[in-house]
Design goal:
This protein has about 170 residues and is an all-alpha fold. It has seven helices and no strands. Among the domains are: about 45 residues; about 40 residues. This is Helix-turn-helix domain-containing protein.
């Protein structure tokens, strides 16, 4: 049999027995209600914390370093306190003091021993009289060329000019 014919027969029997068709409402979508968050609490201003023991010690140390900074360079203070220069520079920056600037460059005159220079001059003149060249004399006495030149100029030792070109 045909299902649609069966369905119509069932409907006719339902209506004949006194049945009624009730039309129900369809599903209606109802969105969720809007969320209600609690009101934000007002911010409470905290009182500044009292300085900790660590901060007090740091300020006392910075005061001591500031006193040293008036008369010392950063390097001298670091050597005296046995701390790194970086930590002293950071301390100076955060607490607002400066160190004495070190003199720039190495401007000092070397001190030479006159007696030792006189002995070297005697040896140089003796080697010159034998006929040794300036370079050979410096190598024999184990002194540098600058020391040799300084003594020659200081005592006015006259060396014969060296020969140019390859030696045979």
């Amino acid at each position: 049999m045909n299902p649609s014919i069966d369905l119509e027969a069932a409907q006719a029997a339902f209506f004949a027995s006194g049945g009624k068709i009730i039309v129900l409402d369809g599903y209606q979508y109802v969105p969720f209600p809007q969320r209600k968050h609690p009101e934000p609490k007002p911010k409470v201003k905290r009182e500044p914390d009292k300085q900790s023991v660590h901060q007090k010690n740091a300020q006392a140390r910075a005061g001591m370093v500031a006193e040293l900074a008036e008369t010392m360079t950063c390097r001298e203070a670091a050597l005296m306190l046995k701390v790194s220069q970086d930590s002293l520079w950071r301390m100076a920056k955060s607490y607002g003091f400066t160190f004495v600037t070190a003199p720039r460059g190495r401007v000092f005159e070397k001190q030479y021993d006159d007696e030792a220079d006189a002995k070297l001059a005697e040896r140089i003149t003796a080697l010159r009289d034998i006929g040794v060249s300036k370079n050979q004399a410096a190598k024999h006495m184990k002194i540098g060329h600058s020391t040799m030149s300084r003594i020659i100029n200081k005592f006015g030792i006259d060396f014969p000019p060296s020969k140019r070109g390859p030696q045979k």
